[in-house]
């Protein structure tokens, strides 16, 4: 190893950027370099003979021989060599700053000395502070970001806290229209509104570009109302003034950050589905509904693929003579574990999963086969089609294929389309209805009276019958408003040359009222529940040829 002489060492230490202190076993300074004076502000003369605690701030100073405590000789020289201990140093003017210290020990003439290299960490510290700040905060709003929010949540004590998440509707659309400056200014304004109203135990964060999260206490419900009102106030930047809508989701009380945020976010998503600007609280009932939904979804695909669905037929009777003129085909699903699941529950899921087309095709094919086997050849079968089926490009081809395969006249088939599905895309529906008419297939508008069809559309639609919704039938014969609506539907149908069918007829009183109003056909438990096709065919018996029937 190169043998430095003491002059060389003095020169080297003199140019070091680190402050160098050598102290004796009592902690008295025996030597310093130029950087020590620069860093701490004391002249060399002041250092020499002074205790090292001179550069140590309270409370370490009071703990006798501050720096030395960490570097006791009995812990071994190796232990202290090169160790980077983070401490605070104190300048002559009393100000504190972060330092990193490395200490080595040596002996000379039977005495022990320590040399400390002290590095000023103020700049590095502030860079680190900045980085830490940026890692935990959203740069645009200055609010906590997801990580910061999670850390602060974990650090703050409290039980039964609730989380609220709100999404600014159309934030992205506005951002596209008004640009980056607008979106940053708006986010800052939102943050400012939040911060000024937060109570000490509450906190706010920005968890996505258009979503913010709030940690609230037991009064969360009321607080969310207040905050929603505050956020509704207009936002002005230059000449642009906009009003924004926040949709809120609220968790139930809990302590687990991730699940609180997740459930609040989920509630927020669902609030959006039921209307913008709402407040939706997550409840255990809601969770159970979703668990059931998922259970159904996972089994539905298999049930459809493996033909586990069943078809039942419900008779439709002409009110004038109570003769069966048709049947409605309804799907049934008896799930081994979950029991009978009503179609109103699983058909919307099938639509979401893209399975409804398969169900319709199967129902169509089964319905045609069953009605072909019906002893009365005048009886028609009505199959329910979902809006998605109707919009499918192969819709007409699929229908005529099915009819051809069953070798059945198109007049034996009726399609039921809900009124709300029909008004979804009026011009496409119109095209489809024309094609059905050309094919010779009948069409009924199902659940009529609930879908707000504009009368002008109805005039254009090539349909054959209106099915009066069960809601109006249920209240007959006593409800005057139900009577008025039923009467209006009958008048409308007559004017347009359409047949009327009442669904959900359970009592003689209802049947008589409907008959009196001039309704043509009725369907309901009074005439027969939905039943297996074999039973339906027995009920019908052989045809008693009626000239008017199709
Ligand atoms: P919808 O087409 O309006 O069917 C009438 C519903 O009323 C049926 O319920 C039927 O069982 C029920 N109902 C019949 N008579 C009475 C009565 O006297 N009283 C009462 N309270 N209810 C009666 P279901 O079978 O549960 O079907 C519900 C809905 O699910 C149907 O309403 C239809 O929109 C849909 N659906 C059923 N089967 C299918 C299908 O194969 N495909 C599609 N896309 N939808 C279907
Ligand atoms: Mg129907
Ligand atoms: Mg209906």
Keywords:
TIM Barrel; alpha/beta; binds ligand C2E; eight-stranded mixed barrel; five-stranded antiparallel beta sheet; binds magnesium ion; single chain; Beta-Lactamase
Topology overview:
Layout: H1 6-15, E1 19-24, E2 29-32, H2 34-40, H3 44-47, H4 66-69, H5 77-80, E3 85-90, E4 96-108, E5 111-120, H6 122-136, H7 146-155, E6 162-168, H8 171-197, E7 203-208, E8 211-216, H9 220-232, E9 235-237, E10 240-242, E11 246-250, H10 257-274, E12 279-281, H11 284-305, E13 309-318, E14 324-335, E15 339-340, H12 343-353, H13 356-372, E16 380-385, H14 387-391, H15 395-406, E17 413-418, H16 419-422, H17 426-439, E18 442-448, H18 455-460, E19 465-468, H19 470-474, H20 480-496, E20 499-502, H21 508-517, E21 521-523, H22 533-540
Helix pairs in contact: 11-12, 13-15
The chain binds ligand C2E and magnesium ion (2 copies).
Shape: elongated
Structural class, by secondary structure, is alpha/beta
What percentage of amino acids are in beta strands?
15-25%
Q: What is the total tally of β strands?
A: 21
Major pleated sheet: 8 strands, mixed, barrel
Number of contiguous helices:
22
Radius of gyration: 41 Å
In CATH terms, what is the architecture of the largest domain? Alpha-Beta Barrel
Overall pLDDT confidence: 88
In the CATH hierarchy, what is the superfamily of the largest domain?
EAL domain
* Number of self-contained structural domains: 3
Bound heterogens, unique: ligand C2E, magnesium ion
Q: Low-confidence parts lasting 5 or more residues at pLDDT below 50?
A: 76-81, 545-550
Q: Classify the helix fraction into a percent range.
A: 40-55%
Cα distance, first to last residue? 114 Å
CATH topology of the largest domain: TIM Barrel
């Amino acid at each position: 190893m190169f043998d430095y002489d003491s002059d060389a060492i003095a020169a080297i230490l003199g140019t070091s950027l680190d402050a160098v202190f050598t102290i004796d076993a009592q902690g008295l300074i025996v030597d310093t370099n130029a950087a020590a004076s620069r860093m701490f502000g004391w002249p060399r003369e002041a250092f020499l003979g002074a205790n090292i605690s001179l550069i140590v701030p309270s409370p370490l100073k009071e703990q006798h021989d501050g720096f030395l405590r960490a570097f006791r000789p009995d812990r071994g020289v190796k232990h202290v060599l090169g160790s980077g201990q983070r401490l605070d140093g104190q300048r002559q003017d009393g100000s504190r700053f972060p330092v990193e210290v490395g200490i080595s020990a040596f002996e000379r003439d039977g005495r022990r000395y320590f040399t400390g290299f002290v590095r000023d960490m103020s700049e590095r510290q502030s860079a680190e502070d900045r980085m830490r700040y940026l890692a935990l905060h959203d740069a645009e709003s200055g609010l906590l970001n997801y990580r910061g929010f999670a850390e602060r949540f974990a650090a703050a004590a409290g039980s039964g806290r609730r989380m609220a998440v709100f999404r600014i509707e159309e934030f992205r659309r506005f951002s596209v229209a008004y640009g980056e400056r607008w979106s940053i200014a708006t986010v800052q304004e939102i943050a400012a509104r939040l911060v000024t109203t937060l109570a000490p135990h509450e906190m706010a964060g920005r968890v996505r570009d258009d979503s913010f999260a709030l940690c609230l206490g037991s009064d969360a419900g009321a607080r969310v109302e207040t905050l929603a009102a505050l956020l509704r106030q207009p936002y002005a930047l230059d000449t642009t003034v906009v009003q924004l809508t926040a949709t809120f989701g609220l968790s139930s009380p809990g302590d687990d950050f991730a699940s609180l945020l997740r459930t609040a976010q989920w509630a927020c998503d669902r609030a959006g589905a039921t209307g913008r600007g709402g407040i939706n609280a997550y409840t255990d009932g809601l969770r159970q509904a979703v668990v059931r939904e998922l259970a159904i979804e996972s089994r539905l695909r298999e049930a459809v693929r493996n033909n586990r669905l069943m078809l039942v037929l419900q008779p439709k009777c002409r009110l004038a003579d109570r003769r069966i003129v048709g049947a409605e085909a309804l799907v049934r699903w008896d799930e081994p574990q979950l029991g009978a699941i009503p179609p109103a529950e699983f058909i919307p899921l099938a639509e979401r999963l893209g399975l409804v087309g398969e169900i319709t095709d199967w129902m169509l094919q089964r319905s045609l086969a069953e009605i072909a086997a019906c002893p009365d050849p005048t009886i028609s079968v009505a199959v329910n089609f979902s809006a998605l089926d109707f919009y499918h490009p192969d819709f007409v081809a699929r229908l005529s294929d099915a009819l051809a395969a069953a070798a059945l006249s198109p007049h034996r088939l009726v399609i039921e389309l809900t009124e709300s599905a029909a008004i979804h895309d009026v011009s496409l529906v119109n095209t489809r209805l024309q094609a059905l008419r050309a094919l010779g297939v009948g069409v009924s508008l199902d659940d009529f009276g609930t879908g707000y069809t504009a009368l002008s559309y109805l005039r254009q639609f090539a349909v054959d019958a209106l099915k009066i919704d069960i809601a109006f039938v249920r209240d007959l014969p006593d409800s005057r408003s139900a009577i008025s609506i039923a009467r209006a539907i009958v008048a409308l149908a007559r004017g347009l040359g359409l047949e009327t069918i009442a669904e959900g007829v359970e009592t003689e009183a209802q049947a008589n009222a409907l008959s009196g109003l001039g309704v043509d056909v009725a369907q309901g438990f009074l005439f027969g529940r939905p039943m297996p096709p074999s039973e339906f065919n027995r009920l019908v018996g052989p045809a008693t040829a009626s000239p008017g029937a199709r």
